[in-house]
Amino acid sequence: MDFSLTEEQESIVATATAFARDELAPGYRQRETAGVVDRSLVCRMGQLGLIGAELPERFGGLGLDYVTSGLIMEAIARGDFNVAYVQLMGSLNAHIIANNVDPEIAAAWTPGICSGECLVALALTEPDHGSDAAAIELVARREGDQYVLSGEKTSISFADQADAAIVFARTGTVAQRAHGISAFWVPMDVPGISTTRFNDVGEHAIGRGSIFFDEVRVPARHLIAQEGKGFTQVMQGFDYSRALIGLQCLGVAAESLRETWDYIEHRHAFGRPLADFQGLAFPLAEVETYVEAARQLCYKALWLKSVGRPHTKEAAMCKWWAPRVAFETVHQCLLAHGHAGYSRELPFEQRLRDVLGLQIGDGTAEIMKLIIVREKRATR
Ligand SMILES: Cc1cc2nc3c(=O)[nH]c(=O)nc-3n(C[C@H](O)[C@H](O)[C@H](O)COP(=O)(O)OP(=O)(O)OC[C@H]3O[C@@H](n4cnc5c(N)ncnc54)[C@H](O)[C@@H]3O)c2cc1C
Question: What is the pTM of this model?
Answer without folding.
Answer: 0.97
